[in-house]
Fold this sequence. Notes:
mainly alpha, flat
Amino acid sequence: EIRYLKEVIRENILGHARELCTALLSNEIGGPGSYLSLSTGVLTKRRPILELLVHASAVFYSGNRLLSPLFSIASQPQNMR
């Protein structure tokens, strides 16, 4: 199943969205070593924030042009004026 999903991602998704989908599929986001890692040592109050960050990343990378200002703020805050 995972091989099939990787193939679908490779054939149908471009750019950052492809990287995000591949990372989510291979558990690199939110997994061990990730800044968004959810483990038993993470405070209960921090878990919803980490889950929201993963969800926000997926939404921002969806390619919806209405979200591009929010994506810019989230990914490159130093460039915002």
